[in-house]
Design goal:
purine biosynthesis, THF_DH/CycHdrlase_cat_dom, NADP, alpha/beta, 2 domains, 9 strands, 6-stranded parallel sheet, about 280 residues, Rossmann fold, EC 3.5.4.9
Length: about 280
């Protein structure tokens, strides 16, 4: 069977970023993203720095707050409150994962919906589930934009999402349902995972378990999105079965950051126009 098509996000993200830079240049203010990092996890440090570099490259301003790993929940909430009140800041990104002693839900929910450009708050999740205005969670939004670009049908499709995290699996399931897909959300307690994945027209692997999805778990001709960390949740042989597979790296990752930057400009436009954030035409 021929090797599948590659669902690359690099060129799409670059085009999105160029559009974002153009929109940013048209504003009378510099759209500014505040990044908040608690602790010194190497992966988180690297990822935040990447986001800040991309922001600068595409005409956005950045503010960075780096807190010690033993920072209390109350101290973090105070920092987020200050950023929420700062009119020069348009978007707030709280890098996850947070240290175990932090009340993560309280922290993410302290970010106002209008500035929650990463779509991690309960309000943002509700907006996604109900199809209401608000910034969508960046990785799910990037996945849907990737599938749309390559013409993968969602309406009426059987979509299986493997992984139920609050920032990826759950919001993605809600957003796909809004797009009229029939969604099955699988997780670590799912019985006979392969029985579910083999019937999927579209399969999204977001469990954070390298090589979890093997070739025998994929229906011939399915589109497969690998949202795992390097080296990815999808085994190499899946490309011999699926019609299309997103690579790791170079698939979902660039789309996630492109969405973050676009949402920050959305937020700045909202501030200047006093309209709702994340209008209905942006996933």
């Amino acid at each position: 069977m021929p090797t599948s098509n590659v669902l690359s996000g690099i060129e799409i993200a670059n085009r999105m970023n160029a559009e974002t830079a153009s929109r940013a240049a048209d504003l009378s203010v510099v759209p500014t993203l505040a990044t908040v990092l608690v602790g010194d996890d190497p992966g988180s440090v690297k990822y935040v720095e990447m986001k800040r570099r991309r922001s600068a490259r595409w005409g956005l301003g950045t503010v960075h707050v780096h807190l010690l790993s033993d920072t209390s929940t109350s101290a973090l909430l105070a920092v987020l409150s200050e950023l929420a009140d700062d009119t020069s800041v348009h978007g707030i990104l709280l890098q996850h994962p947070l240290p175990a002693h932090i009340d993560g839900r309280a922290a993410f929910d302290a970010i106002p919906l209008t500035k929650d450009v990463d779509g991690t708050s309960s309000a943002a999740f509700a907006a996604a589930a109900l199809g209401r205005p608000g910034h969508r969670s960046c990785t799910p939004a990037g996945i849907i934009a990737l599938l749309d670009h390559y013409g993968v049908p969602l309406a009426g499709a059987d979509v299986v999402v493997v992984g139920r995290s609050a920032i990826l699996g759950k919001p993605l399931a809600a957003m796909l349902t809004e797009r009229d897909a029939t969604v099955t959300l699988c997780h670590s307690r799912t019985t006979d995972l392969a029985a579910h994945t083999r019937r999927a027209d579209v399969l999204v692997a977001a469990a954070g378990r390298p090589g979890l999805i093997t070739g025998e778990m994929v229906r011939s001709g399915a589109a497969v999105v690998d949202a795992g960390f390097t080296p990815g949740d999808v085994a190499p042989e899946v490309s011999e079965v699926a019609s299309a597979v997103s690579p790791v790296p170079g698939g979902v990752g660039p789309m996630t950051i492109a969405m973050l930057l676009a949402h920050t400009v959305d937020a700045a436009e909202w501030r200047s126009e006093r309209c709702h954030p994340g209008g209905p035409d942006r996933t």
